[in-house]
Design a protein that fits this description.
Distance between the termini of chain B: 36 Å
Strand order of the largest sheet of chain A: 3-2-1-32
Distance between the termini of chain A: 22 Å
Number of strands of chain A: 32
Number of helices of chain B: 4
CATH architecture of chain B: Orthogonal Bundle
Number of domains of chain B: 1
Helix content of chain B: 40-55%
Number of helices of chain A: 1
Radius of gyration of chain A: 20 Å
Oligomer: heterodimer
Shape of chain A: globular
Strand content of chain A: over 45%
Largest sheet of chain B: none
Radius of gyration of chain B: 13 Å
Structural class of chain A: mainly beta
Strand content of chain B: under 5%
Helix content of chain A: under 10%
Structural class of chain B: mainly alpha
Chain lengths: 381, 100
């Protein structure tokens, strides 16, 4: 904000200079995975307003925003960590921090950015100003489910060992707490927006595991153990994501693994409250910000479809096919519209979430993740 | 049951004509195998499957891994979605890095 002050002063002499002020609150970035670029988009205009290139291998890339919504920290699959200025539309810093990465998080105070890596397995933490490394936390395992937690903490989980580590940076050097016995092959995790509950999904067994981060010594709590009992596991052609987790009307809505269902869990007791059969293996089950609807997309080969579930009745109220390879959805912060990336159509499609009417198509090159700047103010995003 | 039917319909498109469609299969390898093995196939949650990393497999074994998966791991069976000829094409493509 301070940096915008100078242009404001100058604009007193010239009204035209007001054009140089860029407000970022309704902007977003779309990952164009094939060419390693980011499309800068404007929610209000429903349009692309720029492209930022030179970000390396962006397959499975994700990003987080600085608290002022000016900078994006982009986590590339190739281990690249890039700091992008969306006002100037340029890459301002970039480091190759590992060989193979899976995601990242920014600390609650905006000073640290952490990246979880498959190779070498672990988490590396960087200064958001300079991208200099401030901590290296090897886990000896592929590391997934990295989130930020209040109190300058990061929480992450190991795929091979099934351990969750809590790295507390509140005193400078990280203090690490390890929680063992999270279960077989955790594949992703979420943290609730209050920063209290961390839930990891398991690939190696039916079930999820929760931790109460308000507890001084968090203990693994099984959630829906053996939810697929008596049913044969179906092949999983794409791992679900939990980062776009849904909490609606006091319940979590979570994708099952190897079963074509979403699972409903009471957010307080962690007991099952229902199941909804779905079109295929869910990848994202995302709540509209008001919690009234959950939108679900699916793994290959059923990835041309979206189903919308009403959270009161837990029934599917709408189903449609945006096009080939629906990879991601992002709601506007108040949920009136949703942007959907349709990779093989080369388009981002924008829908009204009340009428389900398509409002606009925006051209994009193999679009995957869509990230609106409002994420800057949400724990865990 | 309904989803199984759709699955078969989708798979049917890949089977059409019987002969493997190189462009469709290359797209599948990059995008869908790439979900776990990375777009460049150098590994992700799944292992590196570039030619040098899998040279100890013969084409037949690799083709069976594609068709039947590896039980106890995240590698799923692709038999419901492709023919044996298509799996053989993919095995050859992975081993050589080029279209057979």
């Amino acid at each position: 904000m301070k940096r915008l002050f100078a242009p404001v002063l100058m604009s007193m002499a010239s009204i035209a200079a007001a054009d140089t002020i860029v407000a970022t609150g309704d902007l977003g970035l779309v990952v164009e995975r094939a060419e390693g670029s980011l499309l800068l988009v404007d929610q209000s205009e429903r349009a692309a307003i720029g492209r930022i290139e030179g970000l390396g291998d962006l397959s499975h890339a994700s990003l987080v925003y600085s608290p002022d919504e000016r900078f994006a920290f982009v986590f590339g699959r190739d281990g690249g960590l890039s700091k992008v200025d969306i006002v100037e539309q340029e890459v301002v810093a970039r480091v190759m921090q590992a060989g193979n990465s899976i995601g990242g998080a920014i600390s609650d105070d905006g000073t640290l950015v952490a990246v979880s890596n498959y190779e070498p397995g672990g988490v590396r933490v960087f200064d958001t100003e300079t991208l200099e490394m401030v901590a290296d936390i090897p886990t000896g395992s592929k590391t997934i489910g990295l989130v930020d937690a209040p109190g300058r903490r990061f929480v992450f989980t190991t795929w091979d060992e099934g351990e969750t580590w809590i790295a507390d940076f509140s005193a400078g050097d990280p203090a690490i707490t390890k929680v063992v016995g999270m279960g077989a092959n955790p594949y992703d995790a979420l943290i609730t927006s209050d920063g209290r509950t961390y839930i990891t999904g398991l690939f190696g067994q039916d079930g999820l595991t929760a931790l109460d981060l308000w507890d001084a010594t968090p203990e693994p709590t099984p959630v829906l153990p053996g939810y697929g009992r008596g049913q044969e596991d179906l092949p999983v052609y794409k791992m679900p994501h939990l980062e776009g987790w849904a909490k609606a009307a006091g319940e979590f809505v979570l994708p099952a693994v190897g079963h074509h269902q979403v699972l409903w869990v009471d957010a307080t007791t962690l007991e099952e409250t229902g199941r909804t059969d779905t079109h295929g293996q869910p990848v994202f089950a995302m709540a509209r910000p008001d919690g009234r609807q959950v939108w679900v997309n699916f793994a290959h080969p059923l990835n041309d479809t979206i189903q919308v579930i009403d959270t009161v009745s837990k029934e599917i109220v709408h189903e449609f096919k945006p096009g080939p390879a629906v990879l991601h959805m992002e709601f506007t912060p108040r949920g009136h519209e949703v942007w959907i990336s349709v990779r093989d159509a080369g388009k981002v499609m924008i829908y009204d979430t009340q009428t389900f009417e398509k409002l606009r198509e925006v051209e994009a090159d193999s679009p995957s993740g869509i990230f609106f700047t409002a994420r800057a103010h949400r724990t865990g995003l | 049951m309904r989803s199984l039917l759709v699955l078969l319909l989708v798979a049917g498109a890949a089977h059409a004509g019987g002969a493997p469609d190189p462009e469709a299969l290359e797209h599948l390898v990059k995008q869908d195998c790439g979900s776990c093995h990375g777009l460049t196939l150098k590994g992700g949650l799944g292992p590196d499957i570039r030619p040098e990393a899998i040279s100890h497999f013969d084409a037949e074994t690799l083709s069976e891994v594609v068709l039947d998966g590896i039980p106890g791991t995240a590698m799923p069976p692709w038999r419901p979605l492709m023919s044996e000829a298509e799996a053989a094409w993919i095995a050859e493509y992975l081993l050589t890095g080029e279209h057979p």
